[in-house]
C-alpha cells in the first residue's frame, strides 16, 4: 500500500475519532476540593464506551456550588433534596439523584457520662452548622419523644465543623453534633458515637435509608442528555464500589483525604462506604416526604420554604 494511501486512511481515522469525541456530552460538575465527590471522580476509570466527558470545576464551599449551578456555570453539583424541593416550589426545574446516605453523628469523649440523648440535659452541645442544620432539627424531634426540649435544656454552640471538633477536644463542649467525616475523625481519636443520622431517623419511625446528598441538575438538561447522565451515574457507582473493595484504588485517593494517620484513614473509608446507596425507589422517596414534613414543622418553614409537602419532580427518574 502506498504511503500516501496510508496517510489518507490515518487522517480519516483521526478525524473520525475526533468527531466521536466531540459528540460526547460534556458534564460540567462543580465539587469541593478534597470532598468525597472528588474522591470518586478521581477513581473514575477511562472508558471509551461512555457517552460523557467530565469537566471538573473545584469550588470553595457548598454555597459557591449552589451559585455556580443556578448561574449556569456548571451543570451539576452535590447538594440535598430539601434545597431542590424549595427551588421547585418557586418554579425552577432542578432535580435530585442520590449520591450518599452517610449522615452526621453525635459524638462524645470516651469517658463522657453522656450515653443517651436524655443525658444531654444541662450539657454544652457543639452543633456544626446553624439553627437550621438538619441533624440538629431531627435530633430535637427525637428528644421531644422523650419529653426533652433540647432547645431549652442544652447550652448550644454553633460553628463550622472544624471549630466544633476543636471545641470538644479542648473540653469546651460536652458533645458534638457534626458532619460525618468530622465525626469519623473524632472516632478515630477515641471519641464515642452516641447516635448517627440513620439512628435518629429510625427513632422517628423512618426505617428506610434515605440519601442525604445527591447530584443536583436541571431536569430539562437531564432529559436532553439521558444516556450520558445514566453512564455517569453508573461510573460513579462503580468508582465508589472500587474504593470500598480495592485497597489499591483506595491508596490512590488517600492524598485527597489530607489525612496522614492510618486509623483516621480507615474510619473515613468505613463511614464513606456505609453511605453506599443500596435501594432507591418509591418507599425511600415516600420516607423522604415524611422527613420533609418533620423539618417543615420544626424549622417553621425556614428550611423548607412555604410548600407544605415535598415538591413533585424533586427526585429525577430516567424513565
From TrEMBL:
Keyword set, alphabetical order: Signal
Signal peptide positions on this chain: 1-21
Keyword Disulfide bond assigned: no
Recorded superkingdom: Bacteria
UniProt domain SsuA/THI5-like: residue ranges: 54-240
Record bears the keyword Signal: yes
Any Pfam family hit: NMT1
Protein name: ABC transporter substrate-binding protein
Protein species of origin: Methylobacter tundripaludum (strain ATCC BAA-1195 / DSM 17260 / SV96)
Amino acid at each position: 500500500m502506498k504511503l500516501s494511501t496510508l496517510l489518507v486512511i490515518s487522517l480519516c481515522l483521526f478525524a473520525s475519532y475526533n468527531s466521536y469525541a466531540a459528540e460526547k456530552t460534556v458534564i460540567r460538575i462543580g465539587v469541593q476540593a478534597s470532598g468525597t465527590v472528588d474522591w470518586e471522580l478521581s477513581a473514575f476509570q477511562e472508558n471509551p464506551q461512555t457517552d460523557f466527558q467530565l469537566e471538573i470545576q473545584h469550588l470553595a464551599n457548598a454555597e459557591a456550588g449552589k451559585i455556580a449551578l443556578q448561574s449556569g456555570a456548571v451543570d451539576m453539583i452535590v447538594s440535598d433534596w430539601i434545597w431542590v424541593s424549595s427551588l421547585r416550589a418557586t418554579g425552577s426545574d432542578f432535580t435530585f439523584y442520590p449520591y450518599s446516605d452517610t449522615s452526621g453523628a453525635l459524638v462524645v469523649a470516651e469517658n463522657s457520662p453522656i450515653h443517651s440523648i436524655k443525658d444531654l440535659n444541662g450539657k454544652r452541645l457543639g452543633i456544626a452548622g446553624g439553627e437550621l442544620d438538619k441533624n440538629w432539627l431531627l435530633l430535637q424531634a427525637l428528644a421531644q419523644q422523650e419529653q426533652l426540649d433540647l432547645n431549652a435544656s442544652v447550652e448550644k454552640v454553633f460553628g463550622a465543623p472544624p471549630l466544633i471538633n476543636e471545641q470538644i477536644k479542648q473540653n469546651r463542649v460536652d458533645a458534638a453534633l457534626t458532619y460525618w467525616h468530622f465525626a469519623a475523625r473524632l472516632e478515630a481519636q477515641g471519641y464515642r458515637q452516641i447516635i448517627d443520622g440513620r439512628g435518629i431517623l429510625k427513632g422517628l419511625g423512618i426505617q428506610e435509608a434515605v440519601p442525604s446528598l445527591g447530584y443536583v441538575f436541571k431536569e430539562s438538561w437531564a432529559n436532553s442528555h439521558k444516556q450520558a447522565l445514566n453512564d455517569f451515574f453508573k461510573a460513579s457507582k462503580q468508582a465508589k464500589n472500587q474504593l470500598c473493595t480495592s485497597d489499591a484504588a483506595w491508596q490512590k485517593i488517600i492524598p485527597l483525604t489530607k489525612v496522614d494517620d492510618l486509623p483516621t484513614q480507615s474510619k473515613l473509608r468505613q463511614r464513606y462506604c456505609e453511605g453506599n446507596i443500596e435501594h432507591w425507589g418509591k418507599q425511600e422517596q415516600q420516607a423522604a416526604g415524611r422527613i420533609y414534613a418533620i423539618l417543615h414543622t420544626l424549622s417553621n418553614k425556614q428550611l423548607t420554604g412555604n410548600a407544605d409537602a415535598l415538591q413533585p419532580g424533586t427526585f429525577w427518574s430516567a424513565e
